[in-house]
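User: For my dataset I need records formatted as: sequence, then structure tokens, nothing else. Please produce one.
Assistant:
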Amino acid sequence: MTTVPERAVSVSCELHKGSTSPLGATVCHDGVNFSVFARDCTGIELLLFDHVDDGTASRIISFDPRHNRTYHYWHTFVPDIAAGQLYGFRVAGPFVPQRGLLFDPDKLLLDPYGRAVAVPAGYDRSAACVPGDNLALAMKSVVADPRGYDWEGDTPLKRPYSQTIIYEMHVAGFTKHPSSGVAVEKRGTYAGLIEKIPYLQDLGITAVELLPVFQFDPYDAPFGLSNYWGYSPISFFAPHAAYSSHKDPLGPLNEFRDMVKALHRAGIEVILDVVYNHTSEGDHRGPTLCFRGFANDVYYSMDSAGTQVDHSGCGNTLNANHHVVRRLIIDSLNYWVKEMHVDGFRFDLASILSRDGQGHPLKNPPIIWDIESDPALAGIKLIAEAWDAGGLYQVGSFIGDSWKEWNGEFRDDVRSFLKGDNGVIYRFVSRLLASPDIYGHQEREPEQSINFITCHDGFTLNDLVSYNIKHNQANGEQNRDGADANVSWNCGIEGPTDDPAVEELRNRQVKNFLAVTLLALGTPMILMGDEARRSQGGNNNAYCQDNETSWLDWGLLARHKDIHRFTKLLIAARIMHGDTAQDYLTLNQLLDQARLEWHGVRLQAPDLSYVSHSIALTAWSVTRRIVFHYIINAYWKPLTFRLPSPKKMPGGAWHRWIDTSRTSPDDIVPWDAMPVIAANCYRLPGRSIVVLIAKKGSDKLYA
């Protein structure tokens, strides 16, 4: 049965004149309506193509400004064409760089609202940077009608953050490695990811955060390398064509939705990493692919001299608070929620959304409140990377009531403390409690803080404990790119080693980082492959490495099965133990109501000095039926910690759940197999974490 579309598109299809609304290419019963925004142009042509590699249009339709222009919108209706039609635009107008006008009538432009993009075999980015015709070498838009897909009753899951485990992953890199077991034709595709959903379920993941899936320019990278991460969008509506296993130009549309539907059936939400801060067109030397050719001075921020402002670090900055661009962003978000059924968005360099057209910070940015108040986005996960390349850092102060934030302070302070740095104890304690020093001034839930140690940008977890410095030579920039401050420690030897003592220490540190991430208050996020110690060889900026450097080697799961098991049991505990009584408490309410006791090696005597490297915490669940006792020893020598009297605890005894100093399977044990700890002290080796539990006999932590 085919589902009824959520909204029927009504277009006045007067022959050839067309309608201003909706923007983009809209399929009608007898043809297609086209509408684009182009403020200062003098003429527009619509080009239709029979094949993606064609260098000559099969039909060229010139817009008559007397009939096909209304205000700044150019529109026409073309009868007897349908979904699947390839098309593009050529736009003429003044070339006045000092006013930000960069029209080039020779360049084929993608539709800013195009729902699908086809890429020719001979696509050449450089051809769009120099004078002359580039029809055969340009991407082409594809007319799409998203209304006919059968969702079979699927809707976004809207899982509460308190029951969310985020897995940041790359669609292609997840299955591209030959070890994935996915058929060759499906490796690196949406269909390939579908085949690996049982793995995600077994691991306990409840939400995948996909690196960019908007159509991007894979050649937007230097030295002949590829833009692997995809932070180089050229469409805000079309799913990336190269991630589809289908040859049909409309294949990516349905294959993406097949993936979303399959993930939803498995109880897994889909969060898209979206880039509304810049595009692949770069600075004035970059290619004319889409937005620049329609209204460069509208879509991009620039100074009074017409020079593009760059707060993205990528050559241009989207003018997000211009009313036309605001509409584009809102329409894009609505499309991905309504037509593609995604569950949320992580906004790359979200602080750029707080800037005006000249790049100055705004107190109340209109686009953020547009997103915040849009009824179609109510209940959708909104996550901000609350900083940008221009120096704006808004962790703890990002505008909006429903936004969560990537907590960069959690990443840095936990790395620093477990590495053994001095002067970190106060900050580390705060990070365990969802950062009340950052978020305590707001009446927000603990899940406001998205807790992570690693992400796509930087070292993997394995490399964090294996390298002191970055090793980015393969990127072709003499190791100048990527962050220099990684707060990493190689455990004594730089890079891979056969030394068993170093390997044991690295394994323990990996478990320590995973334990803190998954046990701290907040919303945990882990990076693809960290559960199997995936390495990038010390490359902390692998954006251009579309090869085994970045792909997940599935053979690592057997090699590091103890890490995989540790992660899996931690996640299971996190999901199954959650106190429903605290789900709707703000962070301040939770901390006010919680019973927490801080200790050091002696009870009730935490060492909060500058040189402290250890802390212990006794925490009662809100229901008071389970008590946790955490001991964290980041010191490099063993320490002996006094334990609270078990007689005062539920069940009258302490049980050891986690001890990262022990080898598998004693590093973490099932709930019904936890050994009793009868002593009144616990001697913990250096750089180790222990979790003891007292519970009522019938309580369960995980199945």
